[in-house]
Amino acid sequence: MGFSFWLACLRSCSNKSAFSKAFRDSFYHYKSQLNTCQKNLPSTIAEKTNSHAFSWSSCLLPLAFAVSAGSLTFQSHNNHPSLCEPSNLDSRKVTIGGKASTEFVVKGTHKEVPQELIDELKAICQDNMTLDYDERFYHGKPQNSFHKAVNIPDVVVFPRSEEEVSQIVKSCNKHKVPIVPYGGATSIEGHTLSPNGGVCIDMTLMKRVKALHIRDMDVVVEPGIGWMELNEYLEPYGLFFPLDPGPGATIGGMCATRCSGSLAVRYGTMRDNVISLKVVLANGIIVKTASRARKSAAGYDLTRLMIGSEGTLGVVT
């Protein structure tokens, strides 16, 4: 009854002040009804009933408030995001996303990259690596994200082949230095952050189309090619790649984040449009997740496992 009364008051109010008054009136109305029902109960039972009812009302009223007055916002009582340890978070007041909103910044411990690793990376990548601060800052700061960069990578490398990626990962694994694969940097979730520094592997030089099978309607590409570039390549053949995330997104990053786009309702997400992947694991081993067969029941579906792993299981090459 109290809930129905509250909904009626909510629908009748036309502004925030009216809503606040309706909310207070309905709350006290509900509490008075609850107290009346508890007068004839033993104290222990009344105490339990009161706590359960109050818990029920505190959970349900904000839900009804969000549904009935969607133009208003309701702030969570939880001061920390779920699945994150408070000790590893730093709450900073910022103006992004609204007045006095709170941005959570992941703290990371930074350890200097050993000179031995830098020498090994120079031998692998030749001139395709940099220690320049501006370049490192650019790769450590998300271009389209509200997340803050608390650290930047110590080294940025630009491999040209999956063999080079494998050697880079092996060297980083040997020296226990973290790596962050880097594609088009269009993610808004802070995927390219380097909270612990380390080595940023920029895949944008690996952008070749290796093979096109027109009759089978599939194409083999390197991870650094963008979906818009791929569609320009496919257009003369009467083909197109159906996913359309943000401009600048690369195929490797799209696999890592399991992207979709506005056409996903008709054509599916990245998981539905990838047949096979080649991935460099954390120890530098190169694995192929499947064959070109459209349907196979041989073993685990490693392709779907890697798609959406966000760089935690390997580097898509």
UniProtKB/TrEMBL annotation:
One GO MF annotation is: D-lactate dehydrogenase (NAD+) activity
Q: Which residues form a coiled coil?
A: none
| SUPFAM superfamilies noted in UniProt | FAD-binding/transporter-associated domain-like
- Look up the record and give one Gene Ontology term from the biological process aspect: lactate catabolic process
Top-level lineage group = Eukaryota
* One Pfam family this sequence matches: FAD_binding_4
InterPro entries given in the database record: FAD-bd_PCMH (IPR016166), FAD-bd_PCMH-like_sf (IPR036318), FAD-bd_PCMH_sub2 (IPR016169), Oxid_FAD_bind_N (IPR006094)
Looking at the UniProt record for this protein, which Gene Ontology cellular component terms does it annotate, in alphabetical order? mitochondrion
The Swiss-Prot or TrEMBL record describes its family as follows: Belongs to the FAD-binding oxidoreductase/transferase type 4 family.
Q: What PANTHER family does the database record attribute to this sequence?
A: D-LACTATE DEHYDROGENASE (PTHR11748), D-LACTATE DEHYDROGENASE, MITOCHONDRIAL-RELATED (PTHR11748:SF111)
**Name this protein carries in UniProt:** FAD-binding PCMH-type domain-containing protein
